Each structure stands twice: as structure tokens, then as C-alpha cells.
Amino acid sequence: MAGRFAPRPTRATVRGGHVGVPTVASAGIPRQSAGPAMVRRWVPDGPLDLGLTVGPLRRGPADPTFRAAPDGSVWRACRTPAGPGTLRVRAYGGEVLGEAWGPGAAWLLDGLPALLGAADDPDAFVPRHRLLAQTRHRRPGLRLTRTGLVLESLIPSVLEQKVTTVEAYAAWQTLVRRYGEPAPGPVPGRMYVMPAPRTWALIPSWDWHRAGVDDKRASTILRAVRVAARMEEAAGMEPEAARARLEVVPGIGPWTSAEVVQRSLGAADAVTVGDLHLPGIVGWALAGDRNADDAEMLRLLEPYAGQRHRAARLILLSGRVRPRRGPRMPVGDIGGL
């Protein structure tokens, strides 16, 4: 999901977690790579849309940890168990080239297939509504990513709690640029690896406030990074066990845990509940009900048990969104908190 309160799509984004990656006409991946890098080539076993698959990992158009380049490549700067690393991914003619730099390079390349949905099974989804069948036909390259990293999804998801995505993205950008470290390798523009857990723990209260983060969300992040190793262990669990592990931390509830396991584990059934807009979007798309709540959304998605997150993403990608009636959520002011 793109976030709890999604802004209007721009030319660079589409609801449902898509990044516009330019199509590059080529019979194959160039045999030369730029700069000293570790390299891995991989051939997917079916259609792969790079922008659709990794799009949910980008936190806004100016995310300092993510870039979609004009040459059709996607760049990610990550803090891996082996250290900071940068990954560049290009897909041409049915083949994928991954290039990586930094101490985490080998770890990133080992996880390249999972990142691009190798562990996902799109054929397990059986559409029972015409809208979803049509959307899947138009988007055959949708795969559910699996990063194997928990904190990189958990922290921005906490920042998105009960605020607009514009505010959350701005906070993420501000804190990563100020406290992260430059991404290794020949990155496009200024890219940063997110701060280490200890660095998050040492951010002073005034810098949280300057970034627009209230005390409740900041405290949740601080509690999570104090048990960072336990949080990262969730990447090796089944989705329900992983969610239970995350929700032990006060301030992390079902909405946040679902957002995390969708990305870190590629959890196809982790439907997001507690979202302001998603129940109405699902209700409108599947039943013409603009006032659907979480219970009604789950009822409508029940035929897709085991694949409810994929169904929700296809609905978001379909473009069938209920007409807005009412004001958007105002941008908050934490000055008095």
C-alpha cells in the first residue's frame, strides 16, 4: 500500500505501489557494467514489471533511499545485516542484471530474486470479479517483493501512522538525509542509507519535532530500534508470527504490522486494516459501497483468502476509485504536542 492517506497520483506514481520505470528497448542487458561492482544476472520464470514489483518500497518521489533512473534502472540504498549497500537493478528482454556496491553488496545480490518476486506465486490468485481479472490481465508483471529487511519498512510505516503521506514522506526524507550515511557506489544524485538502530535511538527530541514527528510516533520508533535484532528476526518467520512479534512493541498495531510484512516477507494475504481510505476503495470497486468499513472490506475479500493483499493491490491499480466527497485530511501541526 502506498500509505494510510495517499495523495493524488502524479505522473511518476500510480495508486497501488507503482514506480514509473522507463522501458528500454534492448535485445539483452549490456555486457559491461559501470564502475567496480558485484554483479548478478537472473532470469525470472515469468513476466516481471520492475516498477510494479518494487514500487511499494519507495516512500515518496524524493525518497533518498530509492531512485528510478531514466535508463530504466532502479536503485536502492539499504542497511543490510552485512552493512550498508547499494543495489542497481535493470531488466531487459526477460533478463535481470543486478549490480551492488558496499559491504552489503553480496547480501543484496543474494536476495535479488526474492526482491523481484521469485518466492511469489501469482498463479495462486484466482480472480472472481471482472475488475480484478481485467487488471491482472493488464498488469501481468506484478510480483510481490520480499526484501528480508524489517526496520527499513517498519520505521517509515510508523511515520505514516495517522498523518498524510506528504507529512510522512517529508519526515522520512529529513531524518534519513540528516542522520543516514551516503550510499556506496556511483549512485544517481544524493542517495543515503537509512540510519543504524543506535543512530535512530540518539536522535534528539527537537529533531523529531523539526521533522514533523510527534512524540507518540517517535517513541514507537525508539522502542522498536532498542530491540532491532528481535524485529529483524521477524523476516525469517511466517507472516502471522512476524506480525505478532512486531505488535509486541507498544505503538505497533495491525495496520503497521501488515504494511511491514507485505514488503519484508511478500505476504500475499496481509490485508491492511485500520486504513482511512482502503475499505471504501475496496467496497466501491467490488460492491459499489462507498461507506464500507474494515469488516465489510474483509467480507468482500474473503473469496481471496490467502491472496487478499494481492487483491487489494489490483483494486488500487485498477483506477476504480470512489468519488471524493468531503475535505482531505489537513496537514497536522505538532507544535503544541
TrEMBL record:
GO terms for biological process: base-excision repair, AP site formation; DNA alkylation repair. Keywords: DNA damage, DNA repair. GO terms for molecular function: alkylated DNA binding; DNA-3-methyladenine glycosylase activity; DNA-7-methylguanine glycosylase activity. GO terms for cellular component: cytoplasm; protein-DNA complex. InterPro entries: Alkylbase_DNA_Glycosylase/TA (IPR051912), DNA_glycosylase (IPR011257). Gene3D superfamilies: Hypothetical protein, domain 2. It comes from the Bacteria. PANTHER family: DNA GLYCOSYLASE, DNA-3-METHYLADENINE GLYCOSYLASE. This is 3-methyladenine DNA glycosylase/8-oxoguanine DNA glycosylase.
